Amino acid sequence: MKEELFGSQAPFVWASLAAVALGIAIELWSLRRQARR
Amino acid sequence: MKPPHTLWRYASPTHFLALSGRLLPVLWAAAAIGIAAGLALGLFWAPTDTQQGEAYRILYVHVPAAWIAMVCYGAMAFWALWGLAWKTRLSFVLMRALAPTGALFALLTLLTGSLWGRPTWGAWWVWDARLTSALLLALLYLGFLALTAAVDTPDDARRGDHAGALLALVGALNLPVLYFSVSWWNTLHQGASITPAGSRIAPEMLAGLLLATLGFWAYAGAAVLTRARLLLQARADSEARWPHALESAA
């Protein structure tokens, strides 16, 4: 399966996805905090 | 008096709140479905690229992030100009609601681009025209956020509107440079693969990219509208406090 999920380039691919997920999570948390104020 | 055009009524916060309230559930749902389906297709279904190997899968987040960062800044400049010209109260709210989301995607563009560049070009960063103008875009967003936060006061969260609008307008000069950099200069960054004339991407790779892009766009729209509603509410609360503040000062 895609060379066991992306082979030697896996760290780069997963780090990118993690960065996007973290960025979105921070923005959603910030909007939620703003809404509670 | 009847407004000159029916579109003008959407400049009123009341209409904006009603319209955005109806749009938000649709946008959040489209964001969740689009991002999940697009990334699933891009990561697990699309074939391996013959030249870039597996690292090209980073482009399923890099390309939508770059489009959003660029278009959000254009929209910010548009609302800045509209606010300075017509003084509609919604314009500056939208301008300011766009900035944090645009900044987030500008930073993600740089980070994911760097993570793609290392295995593909052999370098985390090069001072090429596209990368440099993308860095400038991220700095302009951060400058906008810092400037408006510095000028605002606890009593008046709209003091930074005019200063922010001027920076947004001046910074918009970077947008054509960013967009056309790959055609104007001989850059390491490749040219556009999707143009109005068509796409140079294989259909099985393109499907995931289009779906993910749609999903990220819906997410950006939902985040901006949610923030605009919160900003409008905060401004309405601050206006409601003025009479009490005047009474206690008298």
Briefly, what is this?
Chain A has 37 residues and is mainly α. In chain A, 86% of the residues lie in helices and 0% in strands.
Structure characterization notes:
With 37 residues, chain A is mainly α. In chain A, 86% of the residues lie in helices and 0% in strands. Chain A has helices spanning 2-6, 10-36. The mean pLDDT of chain A is 90. In chain B, helix 3 (89-121) packs antiparallel against helix 4 (129-151), helix 3 (89-121) packs across helix 5 and helix 3 (89-121) runs antiparallel to helix 7 (203-249). Chain B starts with 12 loop residues before the first helix and ends with a helix. In chain B, strands 1-2 form a two-stranded antiparallel sheet. The interface between A and B is medium-sized, with 24 and 29 residues.
| CA-based shape of chain A | rod-shaped
Task: Provide the residue-averaged pLDDT of chain B.
Answer: 89
- Helical run tally of chain B: 7
The geometry of chain B reads as globular
- Poorly predicted residue ranges of chain A: none
> Any low-confidence stretches of chain B, pLDDT <50, length ≥5?
none
